[in-house]
Design brief:
By secondary structure, the protein is α/β, with parallel strands linked by helices. The chain has a single domain (40-213), classed as 3-Layer(aba) Sandwich (Rossmann fold). It is 23% helix and 22% strand. The chain contains six helices and twelve strands. The protein has a six-stranded parallel sheet, with helices on both faces. The chain has a four-stranded mixed sheet with strand order 8-5-6-9. Strand 5 (128-130) and strand 6 (135-138) form a beta hairpin. The radius of gyration is 23 Å and the shape is elongated. The termini are far apart. The mean pLDDT is 92.
């Protein structure tokens, strides 16, 4: 008996007591799967998201709504940024602490790729974050801008509010609009396609600062 015959024989044995005219819909299979392995506690979700993002080599920062502008300014200054791209609908309150020497360029009208390539950093919000996978999801919604805006500059600062953090993928999918273009981010862009050597910044930003806003 070859492998194919052995597999088919196992299938016949397993189905020996099934009526020949039975259809799949006649015997529905219960699918009572767990949708998460994480307690639905906000503090736990924040810690898990931060830990997983850090594992993916993102830099995670915790702040409050009041301290958010100063946190953003500090991160841009620490990396020596002189220019910043922002979505047209980014809240003005996020920008109040930026140094006057920083050149801020709203993405309206849409900036061409050649211009975006010359800009040091981009600041956006997010749609959702998944704690169990350490994933940020952008869907071009409010404060997020279009996909090119977050894929071309080398440094991405992404603001996530605690109410946007969900435990798992099954919890995230019902909250997403499948008709919107989505970008799923787990750490800085990286690839190990060539000789298993990790190279960052190939398909997107080389540096990712995830700013988690607590107490909102």
């Amino acid at each position: 008996m070859n492998a194919r015959e052995e597999i088919l024989q196992r299938i016949r044995t397993a189905l020996h007591d099934v009526p020949g005219d039975e259809q799949p819909q006649d015997a529905p299979v219960p699918r009572h799967y767990l949708t998460t392995h994480t307690p639905q506690d906000p503090h736990t979700l924040v810690e898990l998201l931060a830990g997983n993002l850090t594992d993916y080599r993102a830099h995670v920062h915790h702040t409050t709504p009041t301290q958010l502008p100063a946190t953003i300014a500090h991160l841009l200054t620490a990396r020596g940024a002189t220019s910043l791209a922002i979505p047209a609908d980014l809240p003005d309150s996020w920008l109040t602490a930026l140094p006057p020497t920083l050149r801020i360029t709203p993405d309206t009208p849409p900036l061409p790729p050649t211009t975006l390539d010359q800009i040091d950093a981009v600041l956006t919000g997010a749609c959702l974050a998944i704690a169990e996978t350490g994933t940020l999801i952008l869907d071009t919604g409010p404060t997020q801008g279009r996909r090119a805006l977050t894929l071309i500059p080398d440094h991405h600062l992404c603001v996530i509010h605690t109410h946007q953090i969900v435990a798992s993928l099954p919890h995230a999918l019902p909250r997403l609009n499948p008709t919107r273009p989505q970008t799923w981010i787990s750490g800085p862009s990286a690839t190990s396609d060539i000789e298993l050597s990790r190279v960052e910044g190939v398909h997107g930003p080389r540096h990712l600062d995830a700013i988690i806003v607590n107490g909102d």
